[in-house]
Amino acid sequence: MADKEIRILFTSVGRRVELMQAFRDAAWRTGCSLRIYGADLSATAPALFYCDETRIPPRITDPGYIDALLAMCAEDHIDVLLPTIDTDLLLLSENRERFEAIGTRVLISDPSFIGICRDKRKTAEFFTGRWFFAPEVCESPEDYHGGFPCFIKPLDGSSSINTHRCETMEELRDAAVLVPKPIIQPFIEGDEYTVDVLLGFDGRPLSVIPRRRYAVRSGEVMKTRVVMDDRIIRDCTRMLEGSGAAGPLTIQLIRRRNGEAADQIEDYYIEINPRYGGGAPLSMRAGADTAAMLLCDLMGREPLPQRPMDEEGIYVRFDQSIRVGKEPAEAASLKDVSDLSDRYRGIVFDLDDTLYAEYDYVMSGFRAVADAGLLDCDSDALFQELRETFEEEVRSAGLGRARTIDHVFARRGCSDREIIDRALRIYRTQEPKITLFPEAAQLLAALQERRRAGECSLGLITDGRPDGQRAKIRALGLEEYFDEIIVTDELAGKSGNVARFRKPGEIAFLLMAMRLSLPHGEMVYVGDNPAKDFAAPLRLGMDAVWVHRPDALRNRFRGGDTHL
User: Fold this and answer.
1) What share of the chain is helix, strand, coil (3-state, %, to 5)?
2) How many structural domains is the chain composed of?
């Protein structure tokens, strides 16, 4: 997978925004071309709005759930499927071979291990069978003799749902009526730990990170600190050997101390969740590069050097509001959005294929290369070959894979890298022969009156190489129209990863609102590409207008990035 885009499908993403962000950050740092697909029953699940593509599957209890996921994976060419909640783990594990048959690997433990984890009684037996302490388990108040306080919870529960602490036998009997398939365990008082573990597809341990839990809400940690305790790391590693475990999982334990000596410490293991825990991104922030490890493993690369773990900082989580469920308004052309200044104080435009035809820019560059006389051939014939080769490559492999100049020059017998690089520089530094769409020129001219009157501000946000995008802006005479122009690649500086600043990231939109001194709710973004133009502004509370352009470069030939 080293040279291809990696596609990961996360199921039941729900509120797992931090996890999506962690994988996005890992892709930037590893140089991985990653496309994140999110599936959830609710179309307004927050994490869906941090994915590149969203899918709405049937309910997990639906008999057609697995078949629907298989169809999604086949259609979207998913490389890896990662579950995020307990309820579909066993189903996915039992059907792992069906996914592998269509080329999708499911990073999940064996069904036997998941069965152990999903049954709290079997989990306790697993711990004690491997010579670790675990609270004794019984199934009815009449059989319980462990003292008080105690806990009663469902045999196969999760997220602390239907979990009750009972102080007396009377409270225990009352709670037992409310809890389906109950199990009862004595309360162990001590320091609570979660261990974030990542195992490879073969069960090989890649990362074992213990962290102390200081505050928990609804079963998920809200305040934690990494503690690289050698004993816990060693025990958890040994515990999982030959167990059938694979992929991400969390182990929970309570450490009871009767003193500081090793023989005065007792670690009671409570449960295992064979998936990414809700607090796993906290470990990632503290230095556990598990998302990067997984991506490197998929690309066949050595993992990045492990960052030092932050054992001093306490990491906390908080809720944040985003806007979901809003779709961009649709327009057939820019003629249909002439009233924007009546409704918004800030109007921000995309550039390529929104204000001018990007195909014209590509052809202008090929014309400049053909006319440069680098090859001993007719310039018109060379231009025609560049055009035809480009269109064929884009049609078959996508815009981001087009290497037209390299291929055409090689086909014409030129293997001199210096000449080929010179051709690329000519393409990239051209003063392009491009013009605004007529309706774009009319709209921008009309907006100037309101702009000069102080009734609206205009902005431009565009991705791409700074020299190329600035040349387009000069050729189109756009400086006079806009209060602020942001070329996202310029935000990366000299050493930053430009992908991190491009759409659909939020950075440029946050900066534009600051520069225009406007709240997002009074701004609108106008673009042509639903794959990347609208996710960020809509999340932030801006409105958006999608201008349909059937002749846009990506629609003509089906592809992606065209910044050659």
Assistant:
1) 40, 20, 40
2) 3
